[in-house]
Structure formats: structure tokens, C-alpha cells
Amino acid sequence: MTGENPTALSADDRARLKAHFDVDTASHPDRWAKLWDAGNFLPWDRGTPNPAFVDLLDQRKDLIGGCFVEDAGKRRRKRALVPGCGKGYDVLLLASYGYDAYGLEVSEKAVERCIEERTANGHKYPVRHENAGMGQSKFLQGDFFDEFPTYKDPSTGGPPYGLTPQTYVEHLSHPGEEVPYDDSGHVKAGGLSQSSLQGLERLDHWQPKRTHEIGKGTDWISVWQPR
Q1: In terms of DSSP bridges, do strands 200-206 and 221-226 run parallel, antiparallel, or are they unpaired?
Q2: I need a labelling partner for 75 at 20 to 30 A (CA). Which of 37, 44, 47, 202 fits?
Q3: pLDDT digits (tens, 9 = 90+) for 67-118
Q4: Cα(124)–Cα(140) distance, rounded to whole angstroms?
Q5: Alpha helix (H) ranges present in the chain?
């Protein structure tokens, strides 16, 4: 899905982000860290977990199952990774549903903000199911880009950078393979042979009824599993 989202970042914020990241991509992790270190321009922060994610955990057990799994004959909690976790809202949410959740952020300051959020507002994330209990929430410093919006045309630049749902399909079903693109930066649907046995398969894909205001009409949810 492409096109401009009328509730997305303001033109000034978009231009400021684009100018901030107008360097070689190898320097982008350091640019993310500078934003977190300054702390006065974090336009991606919404202050709460995404309502669409809450609804997924509450309503789609048919797709994601419960928070426990059998592993080598033992029952353990499922683990969840939230790359580019911001202040950790989704990590804390996952832990409240019984998952052992790990948040990854690029700067030490961002990790500190996550821990501060857990200390100040952890009470907002109570155990959701008594029979599951509370999972762990851990925050790690590491190199990972922020999420890619599906509504943006790839040619508009970023961050955030636009990736269509079809881009996710081609890359996740063909890990490690060279995915072909056209001259405008769009992935060529069906440009590769059948999906790799090492790839993921998409179980479902839909637009959520609830999400952050900025994502209404443009956010999508996909659930994937190993083949």
C-alpha cells in the first residue's frame, strides 16, 4: 500500500529527520543514537503500546497461540524480540502477557529510557492471565533500524523508509537471496522462484481496526511462521 498518510509526521518533522540522516547509511546507527542522546526530538514516540498489537495478543490466539512452548521436552516461555523498541512499551506489554521479551535499541541512552519507563510505569502492565504469569522484560543495546512504514513510496527516502507489504513477502520468504527491484525502488513481485525452504510463510495479513492515530488507514499486521 503506497501513498501519503494524512496523519503521518508533519512536513517539517519529516524534513528534519531526512536532513539528520542525509549521510552514508553506515553512519545511521550513530545518527539514531544522537537523537536519543539529545532526547528533544523523538517523533516516533506515541507514549503507549500500539492498540493493534494489544488486539493481536487478545484476539488472535488462533494465529499466535499461547506464551508457552515445548522445547526439548521442557515447557518454557516463548521469547519475543522487539527491534527498535523505542521506550519499550511493546516489550512491557509482551511481558505482561507472559512472554520473555527483549527490546533492542541502538543507543545506551535509549536503553536507559526503557528502564526508566519500566520503573515509572511498569504498574500499567499488570499480568494479563494469572495462569501464565509475568514474563521477563530485558533491554539491550544493539544495531538495528526502526520499522519501515508500508504506506510510503520507497522513492521518498527516510527515515522512516517505505516498504510495501510485498517487499516483506519477497524478503522473508527468500532469506539471503538477492531480491530484484525496479527502477523506482519497488520490489518485483514474483521476481524469484518459489519460496525457500528456509523462509517464512505468512499466515495472515490484515489492517487493524485499532492502531495509533498516525497509522489509521495505513498500518498492517502480518503473522509469519517458519516453513
Answers
A1: antiparallel
A2: 202
A3: 999 988 999 999 999 988 999 999 999 999 999 999 999 889 999 999 999 9
A4: 22
A5: 11-20, 28-38, 51-59, 61-64, 89-96, 108-121, 165-172
Q: Please answer whether residues 74 and 52 qualify as being in contact, where contact means their C-beta atoms are separated by less than 8 angstroms.
A: no
**152 and 162 in contact (C-beta within 8 Å)?**
yes
The answer, yes or no, to whether residue 132 has pLDDT greater than 70, is: yes
Strand partners, 141: 105
- The Cα–Cα gap between 173 and 176 comes to 10
Q: In angstroms, what is the C-alpha Rg of the chain?
A: 18
What are the tens digits of pLDDT across the range 53-70? 999 999 999 999 999 999
Q: Are 214 and 7 in contact (CB under 8 A)?
A: yes
Helix (H, G, I), strand (E, B) or coil at 147: coil
Residues in CB range of 163: below 8 A, 6 or more apart: 148, 149, 150, 152, 154
Angstrom distances, CA of residue 27 to CA of 43, 50, 145: 20, 29, 12
The three cell numbers of residue 221 are: 499486521
For the full predicted model, state whether its pTM sits above 0.90. Answer: no
In eight-state DSSP terms, residue 40 is S
